[in-house]
């Protein structure tokens, strides 16, 4: 039964190859769109079958499906092999489920694009690589998927390669694509070295074997330099892929891609790969308390940092991009606090509501004929009712309004961070949650409410076609109700002893790490948790209320006054803390200039070539000098001969 | 054996045959040359049938003594590594010839004749099992290459050829001294051959670890210098950017595709095999040079404005991985090095072909002259992107397999004993993405800003035909490298066993017991002839 996992991988691969090669012969967008979506849909169905099979059989140990030997030489051997377990199938469901909806949506969004087939083949490539990433049974195959999604991301960010895109030292979309790939490569460097360390110390790259060895020897490995180094290096990879500080800078520029790409890759799935990697290696991370602390702190700071940027951005996609960075920070904070389930839970709810928000933004951009500046929108609720309603539901979800999905997952994270990390980190994260509610409703009000700030004669906003709005509705449904899969014990204990269905489902995955971390099997009831929940609710509601107060007034007097008053802070936020500029000034420019003026011009051409050409000149000079000796005059030769004989005699005499 | 002979001599025959064709019959010349190289390729494929990859020893050997008084002979044979490199040679050569059909417009007869002569010499280098014979082939390479760059090259071709020639000669002379010294030392002191001199590789190898370290040290460098220049290893690399840039496309393809591998091949075949103790001694020095070259080559490639020069510097960086893998002296590292030699031949060869496509259309290689090419040359864009990504080391394509094994080998090497070689080299993987993606963006993406680029034609059928086979192997090696790795697996294990036995006193890998090739078999064939 579980061998069917190969089909999950196979369908999108066939889609990629088929559409990639034959796409240009298929004249009909409909055919391409249906094939492209169907491959992902089929993968979703197979994933669902496996999912229900796991539930019914209660799979206790991962099921491994070997396909073929990939790289094997000497002591090293790695297979292309897939691992079916609760975690991989859950991610597979998210990837193919949300992925399918976004594929369908793209049929409408990309309608009329000259490279329609190319778009769908890239999307299928992405799904294929992402599935390799999450279903792999070893690090190296995950790495294939890891870099593969990076490739798909690169291709799709630069999809409209002849369009301009504004940014720091970015002129074309291709520059943004390069930035994404290169920044990710810095993270991949960490992943690569981590694999070397794992292989040389554990003798294998298989997830199950590594976790078993580490778990059995947990007393030996706990808090050693080795485990800390491995996990920190893996985490470096995560900061690249999941856009955390210090490598967060690429994600906002990744918005250069078509909006469905931003929804699928840069919000719902690819960027959560880092969370997946840590969850997959929960045993290793649990053995490294220092790394866990680092993950928590980086997550909290990134969440705060990005949220404070989100409140001043005027590009609808940029707001959502910073929101994504911030939400990913929440997830890492959860992982760092040892709350793996909460982190994975937020991945899921975030995939629903953030996917929806991006698709909604896409619908707005589509309806507004490529306008992305929210200062030039307003009152669109009138023109796009479905988009508006779904967008609003997603905003309520991400803001953390009770009973919406984001409420449950965010609440679980905040509690875990307080419980494990302490008050100060909880406080920072709560402030970030406040900003989240604020920037989301700033967005809702500027886009959908108030006065129409666009030119009526030129622009006629319209609702998007059904093929786009139906996926919006499905995601809206999931964004509202998805939270009930993970009801916290304190809120649900009177319904059931284990109200958190997701936690029960993932129990076998995190049993070992929970054991190491000393997480109790049974939940205790903390009265204080209710206080925290109350605070979280209050923060969300206040954030929303403040945003409504500020932005329902069309003259925007309040925001302007505050921007004036805190000019320095406002500029800092508007310019993304100047992080791009700092990186260019401190890292990129010195390397490039040093390479050009010193390594190349001075060293390569000057020193090395100089020596070569110089030695040639020296030989020439010597030859010229020697040529003078060849005068052809016998007396000179005789003189030289005499001098030589004298010299030899002198040497012989002196050696006695 | 016959197949090995044919693989070696068909190009030579072709080279001579061309001389008898009237130089006006350009079309015939092209197809005859192409025909010979294709036949050589097909014949070389039959080597796979005869080759037994379980056997770690040299196979299909043939021996005929030329100069009995010095025991110099025509001795050839292959193991997995040389088989792969011979196949690479016979695979790249027809592609190089085919790619020249439109580009070369003067003195075609000499050109194709020289290309075939070059193929003959390269094949010879990889199958020679006699030091003297090896030296002859090694030097023979220089002649056709000198003329190919010097006659059909770019505008600074004379400077480039002189530099190429001087660098190579500077390395070869010590090698000749090394060959003589080694032949005399082994002949008199160790093997006691009749006239006290031998150039028989197999014989020398058997006694190699008895050569005193004091001698090994000198001999090691006498050989290594030549190889390190050819690779090229920093700081002996400066001939390469000039030679690469000035050579015609086919010349660059062969230079990058095959010629550079003669250096890395020599390091394994001679330095590791013949001077093991000296190799232990200098492994860290050469590895540091390799590591430095990886980063240095990448950084300098990053700031080039000429596409071809950029690719040339990228070779310095990529070959650094190979050298690092070799001197890790682990099975993973050396196997990675062997597969990476093939990989680099394919992906860098293809990059040069891509640059050639652009050059033929625009007669410039300046990056700034281009931009927005993707819109008008979609098929070319796909091929260029694949070559670029293979070179970047994307998993799933060939480059990753080799670089990963090189780095892994260096990481775990008991001979190098430090992870820092590998860790620093891995930054080269980041920089590779930087220089290749920047270049690709500037050449292919954006809109067409230079009016000269309007109306450029996408690749034609002939260009498709040169790219497709390379892409096939780029993907094949990336997804299923076992086909290739297993060919040299056992011979590499045998080498590493030998090295570890000398250093640590025990052999780690078990190998199938297969007797060394029996002599009578050889003499039978000699008699038949």
Summary of the model, kept short:
Chain A has 656 residues and is mainly alpha-helical. Chain A has helices spanning 5-22, 29-57, 86-109, 116-135, 139-157, 173-202, 207-216, 218-221, 225-241, 250-253, 259-268, 273-280, 282-286, 289-310, 316-336, 340-367, 385-399, 405-421, 423-448, 466-481, 489-492, 501-517, 527-551, 557-565, 567-574, 579-629, 634-654; strands spanning 63-73, 76-84, 164-167, 170-172.
Task: Please characterize this protein's 3D structure.
The complex is a heterodimer of chains A (656) and B (529). Chain A has 656 residues and is mainly alpha-helical. Among the domains of chain A are: 288-574, no CATH class; 580-654. Chain A is built from 27 helices and 4 strands. Chain A has helices at 5-22, 29-57, 86-109, 116-135, 139-157, 173-202, 207-216, 218-221, 225-241, 250-253, 259-268, 273-280, 282-286, 289-310, 316-336, 340-367, 385-399, 405-421, 423-448, 466-481, 489-492, 501-517, 527-551, 557-565, 567-574, 579-629, 634-654, and strands at residues 63-73, 76-84, 164-167, 170-172. In chain A, strand 3 and strand 4 (170-172) form a beta hairpin. Chain A is globular, with a radius of gyration of 30 Å. Chain A starts with a helix and ends with a helix. The mean pLDDT of chain A is 91. With 529 residues, chain B is mainly alpha-helical. Chain B has a domain at 281-484. Chain B contains 21 helices and 2 strands. Chain B has helices spanning 2-19, 26-50, 80-99, 108-127, 131-140, 142-152, 157-190, 201-207, 213-230, 239-246, 249-274, 276-302, 307-328, 331-362, 373-376, 378-392, 398-412, 420-444, 461-479, 482-504, 519-528; strands at residues 59-67, 72-78. Chain B has a two-stranded antiparallel sheet. In chain B, a hairpin with a 4-residue loop joins strand 1 and strand 2 (72-78). Chain B is globular, with a radius of gyration of 22 Å. At the A-B interface, strand 1, helix 5, helix 6 and helix 26 of A face helix 7, helix 12, helix 14, helix 17 and helix 18 of B.
